Every structure is written in C-alpha cells, then in structure tokens.
Amino acid sequence: MKTSNTREKILQVSLDLFSTNGFDATSMFEIAENVGIKKASLYNHFDTKQDIVDTLLEMITENYDQNSLFKRVNWNVFDATQFRSADEAEEFAISNTLRQINLLIENEDLIKIRRLLTIEQYRNGDMKRMQNKRVYDDVVNYHREFLTHLIGQGILKSGDIDAMTLEYCAPVSMVLYNIDRNPAFKDEGIELIQKHLHQFWRVYRKDI
Fold this sequence. Notes:
By secondary structure, the chain is an all-alpha fold.
C-alpha cells in the first residue's frame, strides 16, 4: 500500500495496528501518534475508527478481486481439453497453486489483511463473512470445479469430489497459516506444499 499522502498513511498505519493489536485495542490517538499528526487532524480524513476499517475492507475486497486466482476463472468458458497430456495438466495445477501461495506470503499487505481478518472474524460480521469467503468458499469452489473438469476429461480418477477437494486444499491452508505464524518456516512450508501436491497427483492421475 502506497503512503504518498496523509490519508493513505493513515490507512497503512491503521492496517499495521489493527493486524497486530486488533480493532478494539487500537485507539484513534494511537493511530494519529503513529502517523505523526495530531488526533484532531485525523478527523479531517476519517470521522470514526469504523470509517477507517470500512475503507480498509473496501480496499481488501478490491485487492482480493484483482489478485485472487479463485476470482478470475469463468468456469462457463474453461476448457479442460486445453491440456494435451496429464503432465501438462499437473504442471498447470501445481504452478497455479504455488503462484497463489507465493502472492499470499510475499505481499506484506496481504499478510496483514489475513491477520486482521483472523483477529476480527469473531467480533465483526463483515470480516467473518469475508474470511469465510476467502479462506474456504472461494478456495473450495475453485478446486471442486477444476478437479471436476479434470475427472471429466479422464485426466484424474473419479471419486468423491468433495473429499478430493478437501484432500487437495486442507494441507495447503494448514501450511499457509503456519507460515503466517512462523515466517522462518516459509521455505520448508513451500517444500511441503510441493510434496503434497505431487503426492495428490500420484494418487489420482488416471494414467498411473
């Protein structure tokens, strides 16, 4: 997030504080102090702390819609026959997953956003719905559709699609959250994700 003006700096500082301390534990005075302005000046940009978090939520939604793999696919036009071989389909699936993971763990604002949603999902209905959508609904729906297409093309073995989807997604999410809690685990975590994805394909590829 750029900080080229005072309003943007307020939003950046607020995200830093909210993602560390939580919304309730962060005061307008603390935000102003960290921005380097007087509390009264803060009200020239935002009327309340809720206005700040509402603006952050709008920015989070826009950022997510622009960057998430799971939001950009139109399944009505997706064609699994584009894959000339099971090897090509496997490479596509694994590289897409790793690209999304790298985006999530390398972008500092996205890391802070995840922390903010994790902290506030139990107190804020909008953040709870956003967290459910980002962490579960969109991820599961994308992979269910993708795996269904691959089964339909004879690339993967058929099975219980809901169980297969969770088998693919759950370990990735578990490792991602461990990386969030322990950044030093990043390289090991990425290696574990790669092993998991390749193992999934070893189990379900129809030509093996």
